[in-house]
Specification:
Blueprint: H1 10-26, H2 30-33, H3 36-42, E1 43-50, E2 56-58, H4 59-65, E3 73-85, E4 88-98, E5 106-117, E6 120-130
Parallel strand pairs: 1-6
Antiparallel strand pairs: 1-2, 3-4, 4-5, 5-6
């Protein structure tokens, strides 16, 4: 964890890092994406997403869309977790993604904001930005 605005032990920081990465990866699994109840638990009521296409989605749209679409193949790596406050964290990472029926794998930079509330850690924001091949290695 790069920033520690609140006093946490290294063990607490490591546990939180592992927990948030696990939640992030859980959202990429096909089983989770098909499960509206689980999605509703993981996404905060005010959730917003800006997709790599530039499209902006709210929670209702995601709950309607994800269970109906075939989950893409995703390989996530180079995770970084930043504790922004005692109840807000940012998860940054890179992802290789290939949508169903497509041959091309795209690479993107990902950023999610996770907020701790009475329901636990919930994602409040996510953005994926495609890395163009001309920009070099990721």
């Amino acid at each position: 964890m790069n920033q520690r605005p609140t006093q946490v032990t290294s063990e607490q920081a490591q546990a939180l890092t592992e927990h948030l990465i696990a939640l992030e990866l859980q959202l990429q699994h096909a089983e989770t994406r098909r499960n509206k109840v689980l999605l509703n638990q993981l996404l905060a009521n005010g959730f917003e997403e800006i997709a790599a296409s530039g499209a902006r989605f709210g929670k209702a749209h995601v709950l309607e869309r994800l269970p109906e679409e075939q989950a893409p193949w995703v390989e996530a790596f180079d995770f970084e977790v930043r504790l922004l406050s005692k109840d807000l964290a940012q998860v940054l990472y890179k992802a290789k993604l290939r949508k169903a029926g497509e041959l091309q794998t795209k690479v993107s930079l990902r950023s999610s904001l996770w907020q701790l509330n009475s329901l636990g850690w919930q994602m409040v924001f996510h953005q994926g930005t495609t890395v163009l091949p001309a920009t070099g290695p990721v």
